[in-house]
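Q: Could you write out the predicted structure for this multi-component system? I'm mainly interested in how the pieces pack against one another.
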Amino acid sequence: MSSRRSRSRRSSNSSRITEEQIVELVSKLQDLLPEARSRSSERVSASRVLQDTCNYIRDLQQEVDDLSERLADMLASTEMTSAQAAIIRSLLM
Amino acid sequence: MASVPSSSSSSPSQPKTRKKPGQNSSPAPPPQTKWRTGTQERLYSRRLVDALRATRDRTQVQESVGSRAVKQAADSALALTARGQSRWSRAILFGRNSCRRKLLVKAGGKIRRHRRKQHGVPPVAAEPGVLKEQKVKERLRKLGRLVPGCRKLPAATLLEEAADYVAALELQVRTMRALADALSAATVSAPEEEETAAVDPMAIAEQGS
């Protein structure tokens, strides 16, 4: 397999990862980040995007943990009027 | 990536699918649109409520539902909603239930059991320039640790998985927050009525949706 590789030749078929593919993936990731809303068109360095992504994922996971705690507390209490249950039902639909 | 839940190249007039028009030939919608459709939100809400009810039913009478159990239920529900089409979702599902095959069927997507080693991974010599920087490599490694099941992936795959995972996490946070807010608003506003209409919130929620 390795004999097919040539350092000077770069093709864009699916088996090889090109610079453009990476750049595109990084910019796709950049668009997902909350920072993208403030600097929409400006291209940031790849390492910065990766750093922001790591921080964002960590923040989101932390939020999930906090929300899990909230939900766990609330699941413990099952007392509720039917009117309140109707509110929940409508919100979930 | 094989079949995608709400996409079809031959029916352009589907309500609430993707927000980008006219992408017939793209293999999969980008993470932003895929995870932000109303369909996905409802789907995940249902799965989340189901999972939470199941968790609560499994808990012993004296114990209370722990936050870790809730988080695991939420993560599993999220992975199910991904239909096992991404590596991180498969990692979550396989990690929880290593013996339960029917969980894969329940997810409904095309899940193939493939070996952990990838064949034909291109050698390092063919890397594009930006990936050779030390900083980028370190951060890629950090990212690989954060996304479940993605520690040893090549860069391009890891970036794709990360994008999908971020969008999915956003959905998870949105849904859980909506559910928590709804539950807390309902419990705080009215006084407790012990004897009369004590209703199980999860049961009603599950029946209603």
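A: Regarding packing and overall arrangement: Chain B has a mean pLDDT of 70.
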